C-alpha cells in the first residue's frame, strides 16, 4: 500500500488503476477489504456466542446422573413405588391381572395418544409398568403411585394440578395433558433389578 | 423536548455553574422532574402511579441488593439461607418482607398505571413509543418476579419453576430441548436456581434502563392529561416542581401507609404457606398457584382444554397467555378513535369497566383450583378479554359519537380560556 501511494504521488502510474477507486469490473479494493474485515469480525463474534449459549445446557455432572437401578423384588401386585431418575420421579408399578385386562379392553383408536399396554412394557413383563412420574401437561407429579393416593376415574394416575387423568397403562384419558406418561428407556438386568436410563 | 415556556435552569452558585458546564446533570434533573418540566395543570391522582412505580423499583433494588448479601443460591442451602435471613440476620425479617410485599406493591401500582393508560388511551399518538416501552417493562417485571419467587426454594418456588418452564415444552420439536437448556437439567435444580439468581439480579437494572427510555420518550410530547386535549398554551400547564412533587409526595404518603400495613401486619397474606416447605421434586403441592399478580394470565393458560385443529391444547394455552400481553403492543393501532379520554367516550367507558371486571374474574379463576366451573368461567372471560381488544375497541371507535371536547385544558379547569376562539 505504502509503495503504491508513493508511486501514485510521484505520478509515474495511472491513478485510475491504483487509487482503489475501481477496477475493470467495478469492484473497489477498499470495498473488498471492508466486507472481508466485517465478515471475519462477524463470524468471530458469532463464534463467541457458542460457549455463551452452550453453557446453559445440562452440564456433565447433571448428565452423569442419568441412570438408576431399582430393586423391584418387594413390589407386590397392585403396588407401586416412586424412584428418582434424572432428578425426576419414576413410577414402577406392578399391575394386577384386573388392571392389565382393563388396559387391554380399551380400543386403541379411541385414545388421544394411541398405544397398547404391550407397547408400553417389555415382552413377558406386561405387569411391570414403568413410567416417568411427570405429567405431560406441565410437569407436576401425578398422584396414584403412593399408598392411599387418588388414582383417578380410570384407576391409573391423577394429576391434581390441572386435572389430567391417566389409565392403568398410564395413558392420557382426560384433561389437558397431550401425551401418555413417558416410558423411559430401561432394561431388566435380572428378574428383580431394573436399570433405567 | 419541552414547551417554549419551560423555565431554563439558571444555577446561581458558582459551584453549580461549574458543574453545569462540565456535566449538566442538575440541569437534566431540573428539566425532568423540576420546575423546568411544564405539566398539564389538571392531572388527577391517577397520574401518581408512574412516580410510585419508580419508587417501588428503587425499593426492590435496595432491599434486593441487601438480601443478596445474605442469600446463598445453591439448592442445598438456599431454603436454609432464607430462614437464616428471617431468624438470624439483623432486620433480615423486615428486609425480606419488604422485598416480597414490595413486589406485590409494585404490581398493584403498575396495574393501576396500565389501566390508567387504558382508560385515558395514553397509548395514542404521539405517545405510542411510551406505551410500547411500558409494555416491555411489564414483561421484564413478570420475568423478574417469576425468577425471584423461585429463589427461596420452597415447594411453590420449585413447582412454579417446573410448571412455567414446562410451558416451553409445548413448543413443537424444539420444546423439550429448549426447556432443558433453560433449566440446565431435566428438572429445576442447582443449575436453574443459580441462573435464576443471576438473572433476577440483572433484570431490575435492565428495567431501570428501559424506565429511563420510557421517561425520555414521555418528555418529548409531555404528559397526557385527563381531558386528552393537548397542551395549547402556557396557561394549560404548571411546573412539575413544586406542584406535582407536592401532589406525588402526598400520594407517596398514602402508598407508604398501605404498604407498611401489609409489611408489618400482614406480611404473609399474599404468600403461600407451601413455600415454607423445602422444595421436594417427588411431591407436588395439592394446589399450585402462581403469585396473585399472574392469576389473570394463569387463568387464560388453563382455559384451553381441547385441541384446536392440529394445535394441541397445551400449546394453545401457552400462545393465548403470551398473546394476552402481546396484544397490548398493538393497542395504539387497534383503538382508532381520535378522542383519547374515556370521560368523553360514553360507549368506550362502559366497555372499559367491563374489561376491568373481566380481568378481575380471570384473576379470581386463576387463583382457584382447576375445577370445571372455574375453567368454564375462565373460558368465557378469556374469550371476552380478546374480543375486547381485537373486536370491540375497533368497532366502538368507528360507531361511537364522542361527547364534545373542551377547547383547552384551561377551559376544562376554569370554565373559560382567554385564548379561546370566538365560538367559546
TrEMBL record, chain A:
Superkingdom in the source lineage: Bacteria
Task performed by this protein: Component of the ubiquinol-cytochrome c reductase complex (complex III or cytochrome b-c1 complex), which is a respiratory chain that generates an electrochemical potential coupled to ATP synthesis.
E.C. number: 7.1.1.8
Its membrane topology: Single-pass membrane protein
Keywords: 2Fe-2S, Cell membrane, Disulfide bond, Electron transport, Iron, Iron-sulfur, Membrane, Metal-binding, Translocase, Transmembrane, Transmembrane helix, Transport
Name the record gives this protein: Ubiquinol-cytochrome c reductase iron-sulfur subunit
Cofactor: [2Fe-2S] cluster
Subunit text: The main subunits of complex b-c1 are: cytochrome b, cytochrome c1 and the Rieske protein.
Annotated localization: Cell membrane
Enzyme class: translocase
Rieske domain span: 97-195
Annotated Gene3D superfamilies: Rieske [2Fe-2S] iron-sulphur domain, Single helix bin
Ranges that cross the membrane: 32-53
Recorded catalytic activity of this chain's protein: a quinol + 2 Fe(III)-[cytochrome c](out) = a quinone + 2 Fe(II)-[cytochrome c](out) + 2 H(+)(out)
Organism: Novosphingobium pokkalii
Region (Disordered): 1-24
Note in the entry: The Rieske protein is a high potential 2Fe-2S protein.
Pfam families assigned: Rieske, UCR_Fe-S_N
CC cofactor note: Binds 1 [2Fe-2S] cluster per subunit.
From TrEMBL, chain B:
Its membrane topology: Multi-pass membrane protein
Domain Cytochrome b/b6 C-terminal region profile: 230-407
Keywords associated with the record: Electron transport, Heme, Iron, Membrane, Metal-binding, Respiratory chain, Transmembrane, Transmembrane helix, Transport
Pfam families according to UniProt: Cytochrom_B_C (PF00032), Cytochrome_B (PF00033)
Cellular compartment(s): Membrane
Note on how the cofactor is bound: Binds 2 heme groups non-covalently.
UniProt-listed PROSITE patterns: CYTB_CTER, CYTB_NTER
Function, in words: Component of the ubiquinol-cytochrome c reductase complex (complex III or cytochrome b-c1 complex), which is a respiratory chain that generates an electrochemical potential coupled to ATP synthesis.
Family of this protein: Belongs to the cytochrome b family.
Name of the protein: Cytochrome b
Origin species: Novosphingobium pokkalii
Classification lineage: Bacteria, Pseudomonadati, Pseudomonadota, Alphaproteobacteria, Sphingomonadales
Amino acid at each position: 500500500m505504502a509503495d503504491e501511494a508513493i508511486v501514485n504521488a510521484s505520478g509515474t502510474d495511472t491513478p485510475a488503476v491504483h487509487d482503489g477507486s475501481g477496477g475493470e469490473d467495478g469492484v473497489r479494493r477498499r470495498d473488498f477489504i471492508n466486507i472481508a474485515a466485517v465478515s471475519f469480525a462477524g463470524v468471530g463474534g458469532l463464534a463467541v456466542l457458542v460457549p455463551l449459549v452452550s453453557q446453559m445446557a445440562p452440564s456433565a455432572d447433571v448428565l452423569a446422573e442419568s441412570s438408576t437401578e431399582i430393586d423391584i423384588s418387594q413390589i407386590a401386585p397392585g403396588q407401586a413405588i416412586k424412584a428418582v431418575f434424572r432428578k425426576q420421579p419414576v413410577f414402577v408399578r406392578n399391575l394386577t391381572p384386573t388392571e392389565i385386562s382393563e388396559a387391554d379392553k380399551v380400543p386403541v383408536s379411541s385414545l388421544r395418544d394411541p398405544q397398547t399396554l404391550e407397547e408400553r412394557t417389555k415382552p413377558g413383563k406386561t405387569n411391570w409398568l414403568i413410567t416417568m412420574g411427570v405429567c405431560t401437561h406441565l410437569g407436576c407429579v401425578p398422584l396414584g403411585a403412593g399408598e392411599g393416593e387418588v388414582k383417578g376415574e380410570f384407576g391409573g394416575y391423577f394429576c391434581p394440578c390441572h386435572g389430567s387423568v391417566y389409565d392403568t397403562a398410564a395413558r392420557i384419558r382426560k384433561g389437558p395433558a397431550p401425551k401418555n406418561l413417558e416410558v423411559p428407556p430401561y432394561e431388566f438386568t435380572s428378574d428383580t433389578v431394573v436399570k433405567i436410563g | 423536548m419541552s414547551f417554549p415556556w419551560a423555565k431554563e435552569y439558571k444555577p446561581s452558585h458558582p459551584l453549580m455553574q461549574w458543574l453545569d458546564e462540565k456535566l449538566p446533570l442538575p440541569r437534566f434533573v431540573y428539566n425532568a422532574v423540576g420546575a423546568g418540566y411544564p405539566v398539564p395543570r389538571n392531572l388527577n391522582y391517577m397520574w401518581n402511579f408512574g412516580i410510585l412505580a419508580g419508587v417501588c423499583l428503587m425499593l426492590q433494588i435496595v432491599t434486593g441488593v441487601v438480601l443478596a448479601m445474605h442469600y446463598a443460591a445453591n439448592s442445598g442451602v438456599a431454603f436454609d439461607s432464607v430462614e437464616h435471613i428471617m431468624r438470624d440476620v439483623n432486620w433480615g425479617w423486615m428486609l425480606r418482607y419488604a422485598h416480597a410485599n414490595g413486589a406485590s406493591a409494585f404490581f398493584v401500582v403498575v396495574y393501576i398505571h396500565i389501566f390508567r393508560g387504558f382508560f385515558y388511551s395514553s397509548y395514542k399518538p404521539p405517545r405510542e413509543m411510551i406505551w410500547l416501552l411500558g409494555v416491555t417493562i411489564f414483561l421484564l417485571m413478570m420475568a423478574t418476579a417469576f425468577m425471584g419467587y423461585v429463589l427461596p426454594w420452597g415447594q411453590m418456588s420449585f413447582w412454579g419453576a417446573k410448571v412455567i418452564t414446562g410451558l416451553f415444552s409445548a413448543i413443537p420439536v424444539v420444546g423439550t430441548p429448549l426447556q432443558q437448556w433453560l433449566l440446565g437439567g431435566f428438572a429445576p435444580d442447582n443449575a436453574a436456581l443459580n441462573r435464576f439468581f443471576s438473572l433476577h439480579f440483572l433484570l431490575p437494572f435492565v428495567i431501570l434502563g428501559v424506565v429511563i427510555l420510557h421517561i425520555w420518550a414521555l418528555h418529548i410530547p409531555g404528559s397526557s392529561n385527563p381531558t386528552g386535549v393537548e397542551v395549547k398554551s402556557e396557561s394549560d400547564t404548571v411546573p412539575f416542581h413544586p406542584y406535582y412533587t407536592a401532589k406525588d409526595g402526598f400520594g407517596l404518603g398514602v402508598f407508604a401507609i398501605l404498604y407498611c400495613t401489609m409489611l408489618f401486619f400482614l406480611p404473609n397474606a399474599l404468600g403461600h404457606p407451601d413455600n415454607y416447605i423445602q422444595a421436594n421434586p417427588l411431591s407436588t403441592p395439592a394446589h399450585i398457584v402462581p403469585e396473585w399478580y399472574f392469576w389473570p394470565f394463569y387463568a387464560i393458560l388453563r382455559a384451553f382444554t381441547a385441541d384446536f385443529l392440529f394445535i394441541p391444547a397445551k400449546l394453545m394455552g401457552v400462545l393465548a397467555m403470551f398473546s394476552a400481553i402481546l396484544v397490548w403492543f398493538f393497542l395504539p393501532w387497534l383503538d382508532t378513535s381520535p378522542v383519547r379520554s374515556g370521560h368523553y367516550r360514553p360507549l368506550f367507558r362502559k366497555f372499559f369497566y367491563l374489561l376491568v371486571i373481566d380481568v378481575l374474574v380471570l384473576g379470581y379463576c386463576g387463583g382457584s383450583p382447576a375445577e370445571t366451573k372455574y375453567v368454564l368461567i375462565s373460558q368465557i372471560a378469556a374469550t371476552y378479554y380478546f374480543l375486547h381488544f381485537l373486536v370491540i375497541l375497533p368497532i366502538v371507535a368507528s360507531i361511537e359519537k364522542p361527547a364534545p371536547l373542551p377547547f383547552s385544558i384551561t377551559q376544562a379547569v376554569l370554565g373559560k380560556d382567554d385564548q379561546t376562539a370566538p365560538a367559546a
